[in-house]
Structure prediction request, 841 residues.
Amino acid sequence: MNEPDEDAAAETAAASPPAGLSRRGLLGLAIGGGVAGLAVGAGAGIAGGVAIGRARAHADAQPVHEFFGEHQAGITTSVQDHLHFASFDMMPRTDRDDLISLLQDWSYAAARMTQGLEVSASGAVGGLAEAPPDDTGEALGLPAAGLTITFGFGPGLFENEDGDRYGIAALRPTGLERLPAFLGDDLSPQASHGDLCVQACADDPQVAVHAIRNLSRIAFGRARLRWSQLGFGKTSRTTSSQATPRNLFGFKDGTANILADDAAALDDHVWVASDDEPAWLAGGSYLVARKIAMLIETWDRVRLAEQDTIIGRDKGEGAPLSGGDEFTAPDFGGASIDANSHVRLAHPEQNEGIRILRRGYNYVDGNNELGRLDAGLFFLSYQRDPEQFITLQRRLSTDLLNEYIRHVGSGIWAVPAGVKPGSYVGAELFA
Amino acid sequence: MTTFHRILGAVAATGAAALVLSGCVAKSDVGAAAAFDVSSTDAGCAVSAATAKSGTLTFDVKNDTDQVSEFYLLAEDGLRIVGEVENIAPAASRTLTVVAQPGDYFTLCKPGMIGEGVGKTAFTVTGDRVAVDGPDAEQKKAAVDLYAAFVKDQVGQLVPAVEDFVAAYESGDDETARALFPQVRAYYERIEPVAEALGDLDPRIDYREVDAVAEGLDWTGFHRIEKDLWVPAQDALNADGETPAWQDWAPSTPAERADFGDLLLADAQELYDYVHSDDFTTALEDQGIGGISNGAIALLDEVATGKISGEEDWWSGTDLYDFAANVEGSKMAFSLVRDFAAAQGDDGKTLVSEIEAGYAALEESLAAHGSLADGFVGYSELTEADKREFTDLINALAEPLSQLTGTVLD
Prediction:
């Protein structure tokens, strides 16, 4: 949550492409600016000028998150208000070079957009009149809005029914495979899986959507959008300064989440360690996404005492039913917390100390054809090992809450470590 | 990835005068000129040889018919024009000069300047590729001339095809008319942006019922006839998914059929007259190669917005024919400007190879569902996965293609 000065931000973003950006990226991003070499060679200067357009608004103290670093941003980053999450499949006929060039181009664009810059130096209005602009333009004049862009690699990227398309099958982490079937799953292929994922979080929904839209456009011909999800009203907090938000059941969610300043818990439960397998994923994590539809109308007819029993906490304060306040540890010894309440089944104390970092969002996708809200929780969690999620989810098979939810989407991705300046996300895979 | 080399852009040719052409090739390091004699007769198009070495070729075309005639050298797909001479008066001779690259071609004459032509014969060029290094402006002029020739050729085939189609429709031979419908439209779909530039002509020829109603126009043209030929069920809905098919509509009476048929024919003739007018030539020349490039883009947009959703040929389900013709027309226009893009350094070459790979992938996908010659499956037979694949491939092609105009004008 640093606040880099504008020129530094511009130079960081613009200085990286010559080293990492592919020829393909130059074409897509810089051709509109005329001669590609010129656009990149003069990148810092041009970007400095562009920065005025979007970075000026930093004055209102909106955070800017560094794209480069030890870990990818968007995991421990203080949870932003809005989400646009997208899952992509690689296109048929693509090869290893296409994948690498895509990751390079995405990294370049993400490095710029997270700093509040347009997607390329010529941007939305600085290119040729005779060519479509590189940047789609709807974020012109908006600040970075805390944008983070986090990339992940799904099981199918390493190997699918077409085989080892990119020469990385041997590098697939053992645990990176489709999640097993869980009781109550009603998964839709239209909201599940994918070779690649991009999590864009920002405090302004337009900034998050702008990021996914432009990354999708850059991907055309190499990767195709498989599904995407908008989210709002963060349902977790990752810093102690954030108040615990509420999900669409009206309950506080994420009270016991792992926080950004708890380095020991992050090392134990979230980051893949350097002596974990595989070595290339060290400093990374595993991301699980679950689209969990809520039967809103049914839930809203449940009496308050029953709602409290199902969750195991009181609705007003979020305190465990065993007493105290929100941050009091629940006491599962007595009869006050039901054995099948959500809080008990999901609690580390009942799961050999297993914890995960949750980062989910509420969603409302309009309504279904029956006139019911198509709403729920877009659950996102980061963990050091997929087994953490699998164990917890199995534990929830008797959850009283299951009567009011359906898991309709699912995906898992390996999230590589942070990007080194001048490099690109996932470069370790192709070393 | 598949790449395919097209010779068109590298070929200097014009229908107008050999004088211009000699300028185009003056600086070229090409093989010695080889000369061929062509005799255009009522039923044939005899060329003195069927093979040549790559380099500058001249065809001396003698018109032995009593109508104005034309001579074409076509690319291996029999569609794209490599070079042509037009307006050869009876008993007169004119010369076509082209720089021909190795490959398979067809020769063809078109007495009367209309229809499919006669005497289509394979013509093979062997040897090495030859470099063409003419003055840029002349090459651009040649590209515009070739695009004009392509448009005239398509409209020239459209008119007699519409005549046959309308004759069947007006006489109540619906089976024949249904078979002709998608084939006739292909000539129009390949050059649709030209007609769309004419204001009221495209609405009369090609508006769907929902469009005409929305704009308060009389509904005429191909799609009016289409609904007569594929009469909807009583409970069917129109393309808006809401309006009953039979609301404010009834099958045309014979008298109405005569009106709609004759109007379509008159409109096709109007299009023919326009593309053979100085206005058309001037408009094309004003737009230059940017106009051709934009035409390539516009045709692909047609596919992306109308054909992929099956809204174009709502009653007949022949959308894939239109789709294929749009892609052919787009590729033809691209092929005329590809060398100008390829000349813009490595980025230009990359752009060209991406566009070519995009066309190849899209063509391959289309071919899995049929062909213009042998027919396509109906739109309703496409699965959601098929439509998704088309959409992805169009995105993959359209994104680099959208950079073409900016690149060739750079």
Notes: Chain A is about 25% helix and 15% strand. The interface with chain B takes residues 23-24, 26-28, 30-32, 34-36, 91, 93, 127-128, 130-132, 217, 220-222, 224 of chain A (CB under 8 Å). The longest strand of chain A covers residues 223-234.
